[in-house]
Fold Germin-like protein.
Amino acid sequence: MHPLFLLSLLLLSCSASALQDDYCVANLKGANTPSGYQCKDPSTVTVDDFVFSGLGVKGNTSNLIKAAVTPAFVAQFPGTNGLGISAARLDLAPGGVVPLHTHPAASELLIVVQGSICAGFITSGSNKVYYKTLKKGDTMLFPQGLLHFQINAGGTNAVALVSFSSPNPGLQITAFALFANSLPSPTVEKVTFLDDYEVKKLKGVLGGTN
């Protein structure tokens, strides 16, 4: 047989074998690769691998952005490994904000369960903005990789539950990426069109250097 045909058969066999398994609970002692964690030894899997209780606990919003995210990603919830799903809880104190950020590996679905939240996203091509003030029971979708934000729109605590289309959605907050790093201030000034004073002020607030 042709070597490429044999390789194709092997790949199909491996895929079929993988599909025969109901789940692949993450072995968190191993490496987290782009394709996920390796499977935990089935004999060590318990019901607790499929249960996460943290979303019922209020997050600590005593911080700069007055916000807290409690993740139920694969590192906290190993049963999600390979299933294309994860979750989180968002707490926003009055005045709280989750600044512009992206999830490179997942789309996001947010459900407001308490208070009101102004949320929106910016498209990648035309920079069109979609935003709305959400109330209890409202749901909003944020497509994968797009810049988006959430702001407490009321005078009381706001809470949302969030689901993601990946067990490891990733996170990059724009302000922290720009100003909480060691990139020299003159370079940051050139790529952001901000003056020296503003760049150094933001680096000071967010912990950047140089």
In short: Residues 149 and 209 are 26 Å apart (CA to CA). Residues 4-20 have pLDDT under 50 and may be disordered. The two ends are 61 Å apart (CA to CA).
